[in-house]
Amino acid sequence: MAERSPWAEDRARAIVDDHRAMPGALLPLLHALQEEFGCIDEPAVPLLADALNLSRAEVHGVVTFYQDFRRTRPGRHVVKVCRAEACQAVGAESLLDHVKRTLAVSEGETTPDGAFTLEAVYCLGNCALGPAVMIDDTLHGRVGPARFDALAKTHRAEDPA
């Protein structure tokens, strides 16, 4: 996963300036800010509201409506476990339980060492190869407990010491 910058208003304003003229700019701006900073920091809400002539409530409503937007920074690796019906049919719930036990976190939490954030999602678009797991931007199919453990071990080993 790409290293995320800490919140910087000048950088956020530059991102806003790059996107504000787009039709329906709010969603692309939110994605761009989250890509840069890892989450939608609280100071981004009034900045976006002012730049797009929206109320803070409107911006806040969009941020909180879509599950993809985070209000806190994630771990170095984001683990998404699919809970859609096709994956459930082939063991996604037991895999999710295993991942929770292995990482010692619940959905939406980050491990104490900051290595992993766990998210349960509904459909990764890999229905034929469930249970599906996405770690960072890489999709994995037919993931069972042993395969998840190997993937987690590989990602931990890649982290800087």
Automatic annotation (TrEMBL):
Annotated GO MF terms: 2 iron, 2 sulfur cluster binding; metal ion binding; oxidoreductase activity
Residues the entry annotates as binding [2Fe-2S] cluster: 82, 87, 123, 127
Family: Belongs to the complex I 24 kDa subunit family.
Cofactor: [2Fe-2S] cluster
Protein name: Formate dehydrogenase subunit gamma
Cofactor binding description: Binds 1 [2Fe-2S] cluster.
UniProtKB keywords: 2Fe-2S, Iron, Iron-sulfur, Metal-binding
Organism, as annotated: Roseospira marina
InterPro entries: NADP_DH_HndA-like (IPR028431), NuoE-like (IPR002023), NuoE_N (IPR041921), Thioredoxin-like_sf (IPR036249)
